[in-house]
Task: structure prediction
Amino acid sequence: SKSRHTNQLCSISKCDSNSVLNEISRASLTPESSYIAKPAASWLDDFLVWLSPEAFGCCRKFVNESYCPPDDQPPCCSPDEGPCGYGGVCEDCTTCFRHADLDGDRPSTTQFREKLPWFLDALPSADCAKGGHGAYTTSLDLTGYESGVIKASEFRTYHTPVNKQSDYVNALRAAREFSSKISDSLKIDVFPYSVFYIFFEQYLDIWTTALINPIFGLLYIFRAVFGHLDNCSDQPSYCP
Result:
């Protein structure tokens, strides 16, 4: 959650131009070769926007430092009480941070760790559409998150329509090449996944397999033949 690592992933303002999400976005501009249809949905981008002091309806807190939802959600607003308005139980809520509290508009490790669970539990609504509940509930592995480490997360995008076997194979190959390039460039482990990959992995190296297997077969045959000839030279009576 350090700013440098965050900027290597995100795609909003002040993120690295060659970040993971920016590279996915660029790849989607050439779908005929990348097989990527659109930029990725990013919990990280939405979380950073949700945290921003400018999104004053999103990350908010009560006076006691607990989470305060947007004004159009309970307990700030009850559908039984007619149209929602300002005032009432949430009138003293304030934004989680001021710009001065953030480092280059990025949260510190402590701020990140404290507010991420709020974001993942926040329901999207008219006053704040960036709430992460539902859209990103399963996007992060928070096992051991108490230590401040996110072990894995996902960013979702879509392949272009694939109809033929060659399309499936080429889409898988393009995804593997793209993730390998990103992993080498940013020193971050990036692993592509789609439900059809497992059925077409064997076709990525089918020509190599088709060439190597006969070669090993021929080598085995030659070894057997020459071994037999050696035995004949040593013991001619055993050979026809």
